[in-house]
Write the structure tokens for this entry.
Amino acid sequence: MSRSPYVTAANDPRRMLDLDPATIRTARSLARKAGAPVVKLAKQHTTVSVERATLRLAGLEGADVEGIPWVNRLVDVVREQVGLEHGVALPVWDAMHRTGDDLVTVAQKAAAGSVTLRLPEGKDAARAGRSARAQLARGVRRIDAQRAARDRLIGKYGDPPAPWIYLIVATGDIYEDMPQAQAAAREGADVIAVIRSTGQSLLDYVPEGPTREGYAGTYATQANFRLMRAALDETSKELGRYVRLTNYASGLCMPEIATLAGLERLDMMLNDSMYGILFRDINPVRTFVDQRFSRQVHARAGIVINTGEDNYLTTADAVDAAHTVTVSQLLNEYFAKEAGLEDWQLGLGHAFEINPEIPDSFRLELAHAMLGRALFPDAPLKWMPPTKHMTGDIFRGYLLDGFFNLAGALTGQGILLVGMMTEAVVTPWLSDRDLALQNVRYVFNAAGNLREDFRPAPDGFIAQRARQVLGEAVDLLDRIVDDTLLEAIADGTFGLMKRPADHGRGLDGVVRKAPGYLNPAADLLEEGATR
Amino acid sequence: MTTSKSIVRPYGDTTGDGMVQLSFTLPLPHDKRAEGAALQLAKKMGMDPAMVVHAKAMGPDFTFFVVYGAVQHLVDVREVQVVERDYPLLSPKEINAAIKKTLRRPLVVVGACIGTDAHTVGIDAILNIKGFAGEKGLEYYSEITVVNLGAQVAVPDLVEQARVHRADAVLVSQVVTQRDAHLHNTREMSAAFREAFPADRRPLLVVGGPRFDETMTGELGVDRIFGKGTTPAEVASYLVSALIPTPTTRKKAS
């Protein structure tokens, strides 16, 4: 524990809250029991998006004249002609051998119908598998090289102290986003998040090229990732501080977006194990399969994931549902570690969403935030500002954001999403961001070290509340294990959303693997191999 | 102060002082000239005298201002047009009783966020049992059947679901307003319902969201628009008064 950047022996929240280590062990083991059957299910299936991600890792870029990406066209042809249950690698690389064409040419010819795919057998299959692995290994090494480049830059510039200041940019136009992001970095942002266009999570393809049109956000595309990373590299150099870039993986294209993020050196990704299911009505099986592959890519790329527990609190009551946040954090941790992510990559989410009208709301917030810190001492944790109770009264909202910042300071949060007083009114103006950063700076300047003196009474309100929430979380996990996680999701346990496993978007993109399924990308990630 | 006053001005600390506060950003570096420019803007907006009480550089190219001043304008309250509640506010008990007595079957409400809008907070506040502002949502009403389709529902799907569930009313929430998406989506929705249903069998169309103008029903082709702060009981009372011609809604007390 002494190695944690967030917790020291002197301010160990586990001890301050007097949490029973046995209860914490029980909670983790229940999360593992609840998650393990889902991992098994994920391993038995592939999805159209996993297969498209594989082709992207092999370097297949671009789109046809209608803007449909070649990866979509090719996966559709494979599915139509030989089925997806064996994966795309065997039929596609077999076709490359037979025609002598490169990947993009095979995609174009297959789409045009001038090459017919087959499932190779024997020697042909072995040859296709070897070539696919060699080409995919080059893609994996590109991700490795980007990770090394990040490490080099951080080594050169150093890392900012916790919490990292996280600011959102969302104009819809990547060429407007770039100067805004650079300005935000100059004003003090350590992390820039480019919000995606509303509804992108429901597109079953990743748009191509730089984009200038988006609704309440900017499309996540490989070209936009590349442009924004280059802009922030320039600003990092100017500021002598590595500015991190964040985007959103969750949705129907999780594996592909994760892959593009690895290739283009994004540093963080929103990646929740259940968000798509609960809040986008994406099929649960699709989500768990996609989620696992995408997290394997993040693990390899050294990307920090951000989970979406804040969303539960905007749909359910933040006091009544506090334990569902803890349960989701534990499940997200289990799924993340199973996929190879390490503690420093777990930006587990929680949020300041308790109704400010209720008595002791700030003490309750502190209890919940400290509980998260206690359970995950080595994870950065992402602390998210009030949105549900931002009423349009910007003056009151500014005060609420001040208390949010104070709670973040007192509980040692790793990533602080900066709250805007104009939440629920407009997309943030330049002046909103400036005022919000002044708020953060004032609180951390005035009270950043208050944590050294902050010792909640062992039997006081805060400690008791934290123990109560942990107890409720264990009870709920117990029920989930009995019921199975998929049933619990179907019953509306999380965020009050009912999502049965045989419903939801993207279900038709889920395919059960056949014996002999081959995906060298998945193999390289599982093995940690480079060749 | 009496409510009969028809001409008013903003109130700072004295009746009639006309004081307002204003903040904005100009794309100018912070210097005396920028402060003069801020004053010029305030004057053109009718603030006279105006005081720049705060000016702060935001980077090399922008300055943020807070300006206080007196406006010269008078507000004539008699000319203000608003949509007043033209139906009685009923309790859940009264609503259930009215439906039971006259409809003799549950009243069916289908709700959704349409288009790409993923913000279900509005529709959920009205429909979920949890409710809003201390009032329980429509799911709580024993005589109302709620089908909440959730976020990002396509208009054709909404029409289809309304038909399948024999909706008496369709509630649509729109939060995202970029490029007037809420207006486009609402027009698309009302047109689709007009096309799919004969006029006498079309469900009641109700939209809500924080940025709607409640007077735009005709323009948007809907029966009712609810703005910010609407509570479930208001919606339920409206539905009952619009769908059930009962003695309670027969005549408004004048």
Summary: The beta strands of chain B are 7-8, 19-26, 47-58, 62-71, 75-76, 107-113, 144-148, 169-173, 204-208, 224-226. Chain B touches chain A at residues 23-25, 56, 58-59, 62, 64, 115-118, 120-121, 124, 128, 130, 150-152, 176, 178-179, 181, 210, 228 (CB under 8 Å).
